[in-house]
Amino acid sequence: MGRGSQAGQAAARAAPAGPRKGNTVKIVSVDPFILHLPLTSDSISDSTHSITHWGVVGARIATSDGLVGYGFTGTHAHLPSDRLVTSCIAHCYAPLLLGEDAGDHARLWTKLARNPALQWVGRAGITHLALAAVDVALWDLAAKRAGVPLWQHLGGARPAPVEAYNTDIGWLSFDLPTLIDKSARAVEEEGFTRIKVKVGHADPGTDIARLAALRQRLGSAVRIAIDGNGKWDLPTCQRFCTLARDLDIFWFEEPLWYDDVAGHAKLARSTSIPVALGEQLYTVDAFNAFVSAGAVAYVQPDVTRLGGISEYIQVADLAHANRLPVAPHAGEMSQVHVHLSTWHPASGILEYIPWIKDQFEEPIAVRDGLFARPQQPGASTTPKAEAFSRFGKPLS
Ligand code: 0YR
Ligand code: MG
User: Fold this and answer.
1) Is 329 among the residues known to form the active site?
2) Where a domain ends, among 120, 147, 174?
């Protein structure tokens, strides 16, 4: 793996820019991998999850011109389920990809996603996470072959830079002094004007007290979004929203169970706090249900859970057509979102969680609260050789 990573980068730099002149470039290998990267804090919790590592579970795809592409999904570093994803890549998708033209990724997406046998066992879940990894690797290859960063390959940058909001200051496991201290430092020393705070205590009054103290410390100019990670029921969310009236909450993310379209629609109608969701949705059809029901204001696709970039673009276009802003999930845990947000006209705000960035050849960078535009050819998904040697896990 490590050698592959270095070879991939060298080849990407040597790749001639410009059109392929109709040559087909064959897929010669598809190799899954698992990395368990330690968080920058020892452990964190939101209302639903407690984790110590982030799982980067992916596919390394090599082509006949010597290029190597990387794509991955994100997990909570649970090895048995990570291996279900890599098994799907190795045993279900690789045989469908070997010998194919790597540049044909629209057709290849359909070949994998609509394969009758695979569709039978999963239009979402494990098979879809594996599809995300493979699809992103193919886009990474396409941009490397073109010799440009993915955002440029997709059509170039929107005029405005992408604003970063910091979630790493606001975990539910932080006590109030830590929450306030980290938030104040992010705003006053690092230049963030947007932050996101986790909520979801058994008594929503606890969250109100934390947010009121934070609002008082930071003043009215800082945008504070909150994230419930699907914990509360509808009456609890409604009680919370009533109590939060004067706190100027920018959005309420995943207030309810992830798939509950009717519940989110009811909540959206009963509060002026905008509803945000999408990081747990696997398909454009799921997004379509929420958008059609008026159940979402900020649309939050995740390329590592949708079937990769190919399906993300459909979701972003759906939001755009409905004049809804797109604010993708975690730009650090899926660097691809920086490229997609730099390019797509409905984007403008992106989550910042700095856990895994330093394990990649081109780390994501935020300056004065804005994401820097990636410069290297590809999708910024190539892990460092050292990441494989230090944090790689056996596939069986
Ligand atoms: C930890 N961002 C999120 C982490 C975070 C989750 O489970 O994955 O809190 O990704 O909800 O918006
Ligand atoms: Mg979230």
Assistant:
1) yes
2) 147
